[in-house]
Hints:
By secondary structure, the chain is mainly alpha-helical. 73% of the residues lie in helices and 0% in strands. Helix 3 (55-66) runs parallel beside helix 7 (127-141). 53% of the residues are buried.
Amino acid sequence: MRGGAAGLVGAAVSAASQFLIVVVVTRGSDAGTAGRFFTATALCLMAAGVLRLDSGNGLIYFIARTRRSSDRDMSRYFQVALVPVLVLSLGTAALAAGYADVLAATLFSAPAASVPAGAVRVLAPALPWIVLADVLVAGTRGFGSMRPTALLSGVLQPAGQLLLVAAVVLTGVAHRPLPPGADTGTALAVAWAAPALPVLLLTARWLRRRTPPRAERHVPRAATRAGGVPSERPATPTADTAYPDRMAQEFSARKTAPNRSRAQLAREFWRYTGPRSVGGAAQAVFQRLDIVLVAMLSGPEQAALYAAATRFKVAGQLVNQGFTQAVQPRLVRALAEGDLALSRRLYQTTTMWLVLLTWPVWLGYALLAPWVLGVFGDGYSGGAAVAVVLAATMMLATACGMADVVLIAAGRTAASMVNVLAAIGVTVALDVVLVPRYGALGAVLGWSGGMLVKNLLPLSLIHRRYGLRPFGAHSLPALRVWRPEETT
Length: 488
């Protein structure tokens, strides 16, 4: 499968780059500096995840459908998605930069001192372009193309981060005197944030070349005769638009509807994306909260140990992301058309490949953790117990497949939001109890509890409502090579 292969290549490069960034930072600086850097970047990614309002997934959902409808609608979906995101990002960046001292003192009071005001102040201006780059790259997948995601988000951005962070460490910039309020991790944070800007510019250029000229946007495809002359009658639905379920009927109606106003498109877009924006924000918080809580409750040194020991979870997450990015548009269309047979095949096939590709990694990591963690430098091999808990949890989560992605593709965004919020609640409750006593090990136990909730709840929902299971009749046939049309 071309889309899945491209996603996996990008995921492999991104995982390798992120792993090497951790190696460079932990070996090139002390544990305190490394912990402050990891905590600052985690906070930045949490904020970006909240501010993007999950509009990227909303664009995938609507563009994958609108490609069969109106070019004008496609262009306007980008407008209704980006304007709120841009306004919120600029406002948040201004507030964070202006109140950096208050924010740092509130979140990280002594003795943790995990994120200085200088790091908040220099990362705040980067928030808008980090957020917009992520949203626009996601939008390209609605066109059925994985190339921008693989090349820009998968290769250019992480490789650029690695090169700039390594340059900071090797040239000794991180250890030179910095402006008041900054610390030795501030230069590392700037190097980490910079590559998102070229990704934003290149993605915008790619999208501009694929949206129709303004003069062509007023004519819907379904309402034109040969030669581009507007038809006097709306297009007649064909047999393949007579889908059995309500979601499919809505999709069929959208195909034949005349051009709608921007306000109508905005209501439609945010009716779907609104509940998921809360869930997407919760998901972003869930992915990064553990490092921040360790820094707050046990200090930056334990945060550095936790970040190093759990870095391998990024490998599994990125493999899952690679499959998700390739399959999600096809899954949206399959569920919209009421094609549960294709949805079942996509779900079971991706689950099988996820298990085949990631379980050997997790088993190897659990067995070799003391030696693998030695790569990060002295003092990190003590995180072997953290690695074992991480590996066991990721194996179980992988066996559930892309349950939450299926739930979202079916339009059940509110249920997805509730699931993620429940997972965050479990994680925070366990962390508050376990981290002060057990440090990094307590944090991974809290994260493990949240991960189990996050995967088992959507798995139960899609099984009850759609009869979908992660393993079944399509699992063993998945071992053969996929044909491109199966996921594109």
